[in-house]
Specification:
- By secondary structure, the protein is mainly alpha-helical.
- It has one domain.
- The protein contains 16 helices and two strands.
- Helix 1 packs parallel to helix 6 and helix 4 packs antiparallel against helix 5.
């Protein structure tokens, strides 16, 4: 096909992708009006509890509390709440957690879409090739914005698209090629790591190829993220977080059983049916979950850590055997995103369909760096 024919075909596919994305957006607004955003709710309540002086990870609601602190999806019979994000994430929610929940629910739906569009935009701004730019928009809008993966993400009120946005921002900033771009890019990735610890693995390829400015920036960003969280929480809350995660692992493995008992409230903060969720495809794709669901085998977190270390060692050996003498930063971002993707499956917690929004990162980077990635595996004489 000639270049103009390819551009014409891609333009047609782009229009179709925009159409599917718009349909998806309309559906998201409908879902927002019908359902309560169950995963957003536990983060909002967790942030409110910290501000009120309570432990968000072990809080159990009763009639003496206002419904302002009620997560109707919580299980009264287990010691932990449904809050599973670190205090750094709850700190972000603290800036708007006092608003009426219905306002937060609609606001977060729009914010998720804004973060998605900006993520795609930053990836495309990093690429001057028009064909590749169109491919990124087509892939992102059709397979992400137009798919059930993002429907579930928005309907549940999830937060993974924020991590995608921060990654794309860091990637875009690096393109400036000034003396501060590597450090600033690393700082953003480091702060993202404070929000989502598996993001730390982005730095592994940079460490292998001695990209010290990025590594220093990543360390600085992580320290900033952790230290600023102590403005909002104390060390006791951090300790409570790690203790709660151990208990959540037992719940995930079925060691600690949850009852079907729910809190009786239907109308919470003037919002009905806050506990309900849309019927969308959802399955646990974590290694721990798959082994338990398919083989009834419980894999403890220690075994998962060993498995992850083995995978990382294999990945590092492969990178070293490729003998890349001058690895550019753009390709290292791609390898780092793969390591993050691999590590996500080893987390001792459920990995549901909405987690797959993170695929937007490696898919975009594959399109952008296709020549560099291919050249890595082709021996040039």
């Amino acid at each position: 096909m000639k270049k103009n024919e390819i551009n014409l075909l891609l333009s047609f596919l782009l229009i179709m992708s925009i159409f599917f994305a718009v349909v998806g957006f309309i559906k998201d607004i409908e879902n927002t009006s019908l359902f309560g955003g169950m995963d957003l709710r536990n983060r909002v309540v967790g942030s409110r509890l910290i501000k009120a002086g309570y432990d968000p990870y072990f809080f159990k609601w009763n009639d003496s509390f206002s419904d302002f602190f009620l997560d109707s999806r919580d299980h009264p019979n287990i010691p932990v709440s449904r809050v599973t994000v670190p205090p750094t994430v709850l700190q972000l929610h603290s800036f708007f957690s006092d608003l009426p929940y219905k306002i937060q629910r609609y606001a977060w739906t729009f914010i998720q879409w804004i973060l998605l569009i900006l993520s795609i935009y930053f990836f495309t701004k990093s690429e001057k090739n028009l064909i590749k730019t169109k491919l990124i928009w087509i892939t992102s809008l059709f397979f992400m914005a137009g798919s059930y993966v993002f429907r579930l993400h928005v309907e549940r009120g999830q937060i993974y698209i924020l991590f995608v946005f921060l990654f794309s921002t860091a990637y875009y900033i690096y393109q400036d090629k000034n003396k501060f771009s590597s450090i600033l890019s690393g700082i953003i990735i480091g702060y993202t790591t404070a929000l989502r610890p598996p993001m730390c693995f982005i730095g592994v390829p940079f460490l292998i190829y001695k990209k010290w400015r990025f590594i220093v920036g990543q360390i600085i960003g992580f320290i900033i993220g952790i230290l600023t969280s102590f403005i909002f929480v104390n060390f006791k809350i951090w300790k409570s977080y790690f203790t709660a995660m151990d208990i959540h692992e037992k719940v995930h493995l079925g060691i600690l059983k949850m009852s079907t008992e729910r809190y009786p409230y239907i109308n919470i903060e003037d919002t009905r049916d806050l506990w309900m969720g849309a019927q969308l495809p959802i399955s646990d794709s974590s290694i721990q979950g798959m082994f338990y669901n398919f083989f009834n085998i419980r894999i403890p977190s220690n075994s998962l850590i060993i498995g992850l270390i083995i995978c990382l060692i294999v990945f590092i050996v492969i990178l070293l055997r490729l003998k890349i003498k001058s690895a550019n930063m753009e390709v290292l971002f791609f390898y780092g995103s793969l390591m993050v993707l691999i590590s996500e499956f080893f987390i001792p917690a459920a990995r549901f369909s909405y987690n797959n929004v993170i695929w937007l990162i490696p898919l975009s980077l594959i399109i952008i760096n296709s020549e560099s990635i291919l050249s890595t595996f082709i021996n040039k004489k």
